[in-house]
Specification:
This protein is α+β, with helices and mostly antiparallel strands. The chain has a domain of about 120 residues: Ribosomal Protein S8, Chain: A, domain 1. It contains 6 helices and 6 strands. Strands 1-2-5-6-4-3 form a 6-stranded mixed beta sheet, with helices on both faces. The longest helix is centred in the N-terminal third of the chain and has 35 residues. The chain is elongated.
């Protein structure tokens, strides 16, 4: 019996060349990262804080809150002082011609610098011409404006007035301390504060152990612009800084001393 011949199937059409898939070198990165993290040892629980560390952290947080409140209060006081100073200012009437007049220049003598004022004031003090009544030694200083009752200075030295503000001048140069004191006393005066404390140090770290800042603070408070804001100043009692600090009694806001 003859075998049937198989039909040859027609040739299949040529397949187009297969395109290589897009290379994604980072597609397994996420799974590898999970696997590495799962193999990593678990973190130990945090060590509980000691009572000292807890108290120290609480004190740091308290200081940060106090500093934030103080900055906000100072900003509000500066804004209030600016608004008070500008309250009676009236804008100039516009020129109907639309012109702005030129300012007249006058030949004025240059104003003396703060250093010149301080040196002249110290010379007045040495020669007995100081407007303030001054007592000054390495351990004690006292100053009062004309007309201030000595009993008020005694009460100030004994701490009978509530301290409403404080400025620490430790670690600053004379120029930096002058700028800080100027801003501080002007803000305190504008804010209606009456009694503040200044920490100037005893001068133990200065050359020849001289209380340099203390000497300058005495001059700044009793001479020049700042003296218009001050009624009296005196070394603080030992419990509140002693020879390294001073109490300052300010005038009432709006009644600076006229020269």
């Amino acid at each position: 019996m003859a075998r049937k011949k198989r039909r040859k199937s027609p040739p299949s059409p040529a397949q187009p060349p297969r395109e290589e898939p897009f290379r994604a070198p980072f597609k397994d990165l996420k799974s590898d990262w999970k696997r590495v993290n799962s193999d990593a040892p678990a973190k130990p629980p945090p060590t509980p804080l000691t009572p000292y560390e807890k108290a120290r952290r609480a004190e740091q947080e308290r200081r940060q809150r106090v500093a934030a409140v103080r900055q906000q209060r100072e900003a509000e006081q500066e804004l209030a002082a600016f608004r008070h100073a500008m309250s009676d200012v009236e804008p100039l009437a516009p020129d109907p011609r639309g012109q702005v007049g030129k300012s007249r220049r006058t030949n004025r003598a240059p104003l003396p610098s703060d250093e010149e004022i301080s040196l002249a004031a110290f010379q007045d003090f040495v020669e007995g011409r100081s407007a303030f009544t001054i007592q000054f030694t390495d351990e004690y200083m006292e100053g009062s404006a004309p007309g201030v009752d000595p009993h008020v200075v005694q009460r100030l030295h004994h701490g009978d007035f509530a301290i409403q503000g404080q400025l620490d001048l430790h670690g600053y140069t004379v120029e930096e301390a002058k700028n800080l004191l100027d801003r501080f006393l002007n803000r305190a005066y504008s804010g209606g504060l009456r009694c503040v404390r200044l920490i100037h140090g005893r001068g133990k770290n200065s050359p020849d152990n001289r209380p340099v800042l203390k000497e300058h603070v005495q001059m700044w408070l009793s001479q020049g612009r700042l003296s218009r804001l001050v009624l009296a100043f005196v070394t603080a009692p030992v419990r509140d800084g002693g020879a390294g600090a001073a109490y300052v009694l300010l005038r009432r806001a709006g009644k600076p001393r006229s020269k």
